[in-house]
Each structure stands twice: as C-alpha cells, then as structure tokens.
Amino acid sequence: MTTPLPKPKRKDPVKRTRKPTMPPGNRSREAQGLASMAARGRFALQTCADCGAVQYPPRQICRECLSGDLHWKDVDNGGTLLAETTLQHSNDLFFRDRLPWRLGVVRSDLDLSMVVHLAEDCVPGERVRLSIGLDRAGNAVMAARPEKPSSGEEDDLQLREMTFDPKNRRALIVDGKTELGLGFAKALLKRDARAIFVGVAQPWKASPYLDEIRKLEKVTIYDLDVTDTDSVEELAATIGDKVEIMINNSYHLRPGGLMDRFDINVAHDEMEIHYHGLMRLAGLFGPVMRSRGADGQHGAVAWLNVLSAYAMVNNPELGTYSASQAAALSLSQCLRAEMTHGGVRVVNAFLGPIEDEWHQLALPPKLDPIVTADRIIKGLERGQEDIPIGAVAEEIIERLSENPKEIERAIRL
Amino acid sequence: MAKRQGYEGVAVCVPVTVPYTRYSIKSAHWFCGRALAGLIKGAGIDKNEVDGMCVSSFTLAPDTAVGLTQHLGMSPRWLDHIPMGGASGGVALRRATRAIQAGDADIIACIGADTNHVDTFRQTVATFSQFANDAVYPYGSGGPNSSFAFLTDHYMTEFGAEREDFGRVCLAQRQNALPVAHAMMKRPLSMDEYLNARLIAEPLRLFDCVMPCAGAEAFLVMSIDRAKSLGLDYVEVMATIERHNAFPEDPVQYRAGWAVDVEDFYGQAGLGPEDIDLMQAYDDYPVICFMQIEDLGFCGKGDAARFVRERDLTAECGDFPFNTSGGQLSTGQAGAGGGYIGVVETLRQLTDQVQGHQVENARHGLAAFFGMINYDRGLCTSAIILKRADA
Question: What values do phi and psi take at A93, rounded to 5?
Fold first, then answer.
C-alpha cells in the first residue's frame, strides 16, 4: 500500500525556499521520441518495421536485423520486477534533495530489461505496470507501479514528481465563471485539492456557473481580468506565491472568418485575451511559480493552458479565433522553455468544440464542459504534456501527422 | 573456429604503479607520463626504445593515445587505445603480445591511468554512454552504485548469498592491502564495520563500493630475448580471452563473457582451475568477484558464497590467494588503472617484486577483468593466465 500523502504543513516563513534543481536532462535525439509518447500518455516503444523487434533503450538501428527503419508503436506495458535498490546517495543535486530514491530493473513482457523509477508498493518478483512519464525537466522516464492499480497510488511521493495530481495542491482557475470553469472547480475538489482560487472578469455580468462555484467548499473568488495588466499584477501580488497549479481557462470565441467577417475589434479582443492575456499571466505569475518549483509540499508544479484544437490548424469558420489560439500555443512553448528552469511543467489541453452558446453552429460531436474539465484534470493527474480532448482534437492530431496539407484544405470539423 | 596460435616467446615485465591519491590537480597526461617514466626507469631503457604504446583512460579527453605521443615526445610504430574500462588491462596485454610476436613492435608500454579532480567522477558517470545518459543516469543518478546494487540484489535473491559472504571478500582484501603503501584504505576492516557501514544503495553499503582516485598502473611487453638481454624479471603469457556483450538475453546479469570462453581459456594454457595459484579479479563491487570465481570454473554458478566461506583469500596464508594487493576495494579505483591492476599485481607476485604479502610458491596466476556498464550490465570481459618464467 502507498503511504498516504501527508497534509501539507504551514510553511515556515523563516526557512529559505529551496532553489529548484532539475533531474539530468542530457538525452539523445532518439530518446526524445519517448518524450513525445509520454506527452500524450502513450506507452510506445521503437518497433522495427522489418522484423518487428521492439527496442529499448531508444536507438537508430534494430538490434536484431540492423534495419534502420524504427517506428514508435504502442506496446504492452506489463512486466516483472527483477531487482531493486533504494539509493541513499546520488551524484545529482535533484536526487540528493529527494533521497532516499527507489529504483528497479523490470523485465518487460517484451523481453526488455528496463531501469525504472519504482513505486513504493512494488514487490520484487511480482508483476508491474510500466508507464512513460515526464520528469520535472520535461524528459521522458520509465516508471513502474504494481500491476493492479490501487486506490491512493497517486500519493506515491517519488512518482508524484512526474505527475500533477491536484491532491493537497492549490490551483487558480482563470476565467472561472464559464461552465468549463465550474467543471474545473468540481474536478479539483473531487481530487482533494487544498484550495481553489477562481479569477473572474467583469463581475457585473451574472453567471449561473459562478453562482454554483460560490456554493463549493475551499473556493475563493478574485477579480481577474487578463486584458488588464494591473488586475493581473494585483492578483499575482495577493496569491501568486500560493498558486501551485495554474489553469489558464481564458476563453473568447466569436464565430467568423477573415474577409467574411472583417472585424479588427473582435480579432483584437481574441488576441488580447488569448495571447496577451497568457503573456500577462506568464509575466506576472510565472516568475513566482518558477522560483517555487522545489518548495517541498508547497512547490509549484504545472501551468495548464486550455486551448482549442484549432490552435494546431486554422478552422476558417473560426478564422481569427484559431489564429489567436495558434499564437497562444506558440507562446506556451516559449513559456515551457522558460518554466523548465524551475521544474514547472507547461501542459496544453486541446479541445474540440464544446457545447456552449458560441458553438451553436458547430456540428457534433460537441463536448460536455463538465466532463471535459474532468478529463483535462485527469490528464494533468497523469502528468501528460498534451491533452487532446474529444474526437475532433484526436482527429486533427492524427491528420496533421499524416498529411498537414490535406487537413488544411479539407478541415470542416 | 580457427586454431589459435600460442603466446610463446613473449615476456611481460616491469610492474609500475604511480601512487594513488584521492584527488589530484594533475591531468591524466601526467599520470600516463609518470607511468611511462617508471617503465623506462624500471627497464633501464631510453624512451625512444619504447616503439609501441597502449593506453586506457577515462579522463584523457579530448585526447586519446594519439595526442599522448606528442605530449610525451614519442614516435611509436604501434599504437592502441583501449576504451574498455575495467577490462582494458587483459585486452591490452593480449594485443601487445600479438604485436610483439608479429614483430610489429619491440617494446610496448601498456598504461592504464586516470586523474580524479574533485568533480571528475560525477562528470564521468553523467556522460558515460548514450544508453546510460538516456536510460540510467536520469534514474537517481547513482552511477555504478545503482547498477551494482541491482546486480547484487538479484544475485542475492537468485542464489541466496548473504551480505556476510560479500564481506568475507572485502575483509580478506583489506588484510592483503595493509602492507601496500599506496592503498587508500589503511585500517583493518571488521565484519561488524562492514555489515553496519553507511547505506549507499541497498543492499550495498560503504565498504562494498570502490573509492575513485587518481593513479596509474603499467607494464611492458617485449620478447623474452629482449627481457633477458635487459636483465629483467618477467612472466610468460599462457592464455588470454576477451568477450563483449555476452548473454544479452539474460534479464539481469549474473554471468558474463568468461563463462562463454572458459574452456578455450584453460585449453590454451593446458591447465585447469586447480592449477591456479593466485587470482586477481576485477572488484569494484564484491558481487562481480563472485561472478568471476564462478564463471572461471573455481566453483559452480551460485556457489561462490560457499566457496569464499570455505577458502582463505588472504595472500599471506590463504589457500586461494585473491586480489593479493587488496584490489580496488582497498587500494582505490584509479579509473582505467583499475583495469590494469590484475596484470601488474600478478606480475609482481610471479617475479617476487610484491609491495604487500608474497604468495609462496606461486607459479600460475590468473587475472580477470570486467568493464563498461553501458546500460544495465557490464559488457567487456577478459582474462589471462601468466606463468613464472622459470616454471
């Protein structure tokens, strides 16, 4: 059984906040392929196109037939724990800060031996379940848990370094008064978040979802307008040092294309909210979060952007909206690079059309906002870096990797 | 397989150790250079007479043996650089022997040397190999400690060895090291100290782990005629083997290349394990000593624990003199120098030039080598049998 996560103690204000350190990040180009599998929560390994042999560690040449044609394919993730150790000494600062550290050698069912980060409740000789996670530096690592999932396994302190489980953590939901915002609040509460801060712009505008949020426990509502630098700065000064998970749920959609709806003001608002809004949040909350990447039980861990799947390819019916989402996606990659120094991971959720007033004319399938929020938080809990939600988002990703020109011409999702 | 030619006519001589220090501000070039100086002084020859060189070092970068020739002002006609870590010494001897037989060189200096600056060890393990960078070092960054913790844990589970069994090896080696001047460890080790030492990587504790240090080990290879004309004490080569990435299908390493080649090995020498008077084994962690004792036929697989319980491993009075200068566990691990100790100490024992205890009436010495945990196991193995010149 996993030791239950201790309740975070009040932070001693006299104590120095530890400087963030990163796990070793030196990886070959081949090994970065694992990161792209981990980003999507897949368990995939290089597989030889010619002879089918599965490879690990990653490489460029098949170890069986010397073919140079290796592809990432989803494979079985079962294995047996053959050897273990608990390190009391490490050559690296990141691990020195976190000793003891448990490791194992797992023989996977594909006859590959893998060095893994080992969950506390794995037993030598017994079956385990492998997964590829991303460590605090954003690099792919193998982890093993007992074959049968147990309740409370997400409490494993060591593996918690590779996920963003909201338990005992404090989150800020930006633009919380949408139905999606309500969904986030509920999903976080369900997973025992410690506190939920909800940022709300234009407080004079009533929202039935905000009324419902007010009834939830552990929730505090704050004024937050991402188009107003002063507003963001004020809130960052108030709660910036308490935010451990940032959920940037900024959302401003007005249907229409470029020439078909030539409206600079709408486009300006979209950029102001999605792009400059992210920039203001990042510029004012980012540095505090980054400096708190190793703050023990109070460490900042993740920055989640809720983006549209049309950030990846423009949907002409939502032309300027898609463009503003693409701008936000690009900026999120910059944010990811800068946040890496603090070990705070940037996560993007890609949503297909959701069931709301602005998607009235979008064709089904459309996503239920409450269910969507729950699935996004689940992805966060698992430590994913990209969280596609719904068939539309999945299909866009698949078609983009297959033929980006095809989807650009034919997109009508 | 083609019939192998013998190693007749070749002499191994002039054992040199550049004294070890825990840390040094000197470079690997310095240690190589001092080793070469020791070799020519010991042989009473001029530097220019050394026309072959073989070097192993982790810390010579960005140089290799090539850069070293200019650094040391040599013009060899035979040059080798063996990057096999702990397996280097046996392989160096093997290749140098053939070069001498073929007439490609007259006198070959074989040198294993490394420096150890304050942060050298961490840098070495952090950039050891592509597989280690990608799939081992990011897992706790324990370096060889974690790799050998896995091998030890697995061995103990599989064969029922106890910590005391490994302790016996460490204690005996410590006793062997006590008279050796350059040994890092100067005090006797008790079983109690061994068992209760600080935990490093379970099940490994402090005295299971070598201490990285700076230093060099070196020897010369030449024809017997040349050695005689120089008036040098020498040993002859009876058998050599090397093997890389043996048993890749084993889930966790519990045997290595020696087991593949053991029959060929003793066949070359016309001897059996019972004819071996002393053994030097690669010993960065005691579990690997067990594997060498087993794979080289001194006992069955999994039986090494019983074997070391029944035998006395000390050089002074043991019936199985083992790592007779204390091995790396007691003298320290001078990087690739650790891969040459086996040759140098066997040579000392069989030419009566010991620094510690002399094993009496020893005629045949076996040295085994192991190196390069590229990912989850050591890939390189070698072994040699040397015989006393008058035997």
Answer: -60, -40
- Crossing angle of the two packed helices A277-291 and A319-339, in degrees rounded to 10: 20
Q: What residues in A contact B249, CB-CB < 8 Å? A: 111
Residue-number span of the structural domain to which B376 is assigned: 135-208+238-388
CB atoms within 10 A of CB A411: 17
Pairwise CA distance, residues A347 & A245, whole Å = 10
Closest alpha carbon to B297 in B322, B272, B330, B334? B272
pLDDT digits (tens, 9 = 90+) for B242-273: 999 999 999 999 999 999 999 999 999 999 99
Q: What is the pLDDT of residues A380-400, one digit of tens each?
A: 999 999 999 999 999 999 999
DSSP A356: S
A135: chain B residues, CB-CB within 8 Å? 138
The answer to whether the Cβ–Cβ distance between B150 and A107 falls below 8 Å is no
Q: Are B211 and B22 in contact (CB under 8 A)?
A: yes
Residue with tokens 């030598």: A124
Same domain, B195 and B339: yes
Number of domain units in chain B: 2
CB contact under 8 A, B140 and A87: yes
pLDDT digit string, tens, across residues B194-233: 999 999 999 999 999 999 999 999 999 999 999 999 999 9
Task: Name, in order, each residue with C-beta under 8 angstroms of A306's C-beta and a sequence gap of 6 or more.
Answer: A180, A247, A248, A249, A250, A251, A349, A351, A376
d(C-alpha B368, C-alpha B293), whole Å? 9
CATH 3.40.50.720 maps onto chain A at: 170-410
CATH number at residue B47: 3.40.47.10
| B175, B277: one domain | yes
Residues B349 and B250 occupy one common structural domain = yes
Summarised one tens digit per residue, pLDDT across range A169-227 is 999 999 999 999 999 999 999 999 999 999 999 988 889 999 999 999 999 999 999 99
The answer to whether A122 touches A146, Cβ cutoff 8 Å, is yes
Rg (CA), chain B: 19
Question: With contacts defined as CB-CB under 8 Å, which chain B residues touch A92?
Answer: 122, 126, 137, 140-141
Looking at the domain that runs over A170-410, which CATH code has it been given?
Answer: 3.40.50.720
